[in-house]
Amino acid sequence: MHHTLLAQQGGVVRSSLLVEHGLSRHRIAREIAAGTLVRVRKGWVAAPRADPMLVTAARLGLTLSCITQANRLGLWVRDNSTTHFAVPRPGAKVMPTSAVVHYHAPLTPRPRFALADSIENTLKLVAHCQPFEDAVATWDSALNTRLVDRATLQRLPLSAAARRVLAATDPFADSGLESYVRLRLRWLRISIVPQAWVVGHRVDFLLGDRLVMQIDGAHHTGEQRTQDIAHDAELRVRGFTVIRVSYTQVMDSWPEAQARIMHAIAQGLHLRATLL
After folding, report:
1. Do 88 and 62 touch, CB atoms closer than 8 A?
2. Which residues form the DUF559 domain (predicted)?
């Protein structure tokens, strides 16, 4: 039974919770001695193969949150090289020197011994911690994967920073790269439709009537790439202009990509052809 409880808790649990579920402290001590349980710190035990991040959170008395928890949930995060924690309660005194620790009050009640934050609290910290574009990309990802919905977020007492991020989100963004491109093109005074259905397939962006912008992420290889090339050819036959940009162009050399788009628009390539 306690193995099931451990699995439900990510492999790390308060020893008092095991006792509440019928495992005696003597039995817990025996399992620690046998190596089937590991003592993390006073009051905490873990399975030998427990999630290392949860083990660290338990050892420090902190809660995984912000971009670290967003990454654990499978959301878009630009850089997760530094671990981010929230302080779950007053009195957590073990502060890591190589991590970011957030002291913001939670949006939703945080259980006293929570090792991983709720999605709402995670997004709040992302909005306060990360650059605007990065935060919007993470929030877009949470909405797109339906880990949270816009109506729920709107009802929460969000800060001004979080409301600004929410106002810029699009739950239909298919990838973090699309979030960046959408934000960077919104100043253009033309119609921009993300995830538009054009000639039998979805395209990342349709600018105006005839300018298609496609973003090549890591999955654009093999059969996917072959299909993309075929669709590009069909679009061009039908009078569309196709511009493709890569991850590196979006994240590291955007001015060049933007210049290409602006030149296309200046030539009227986004406009429907007029019959003479």
Report:
1. yes
2. 190-264
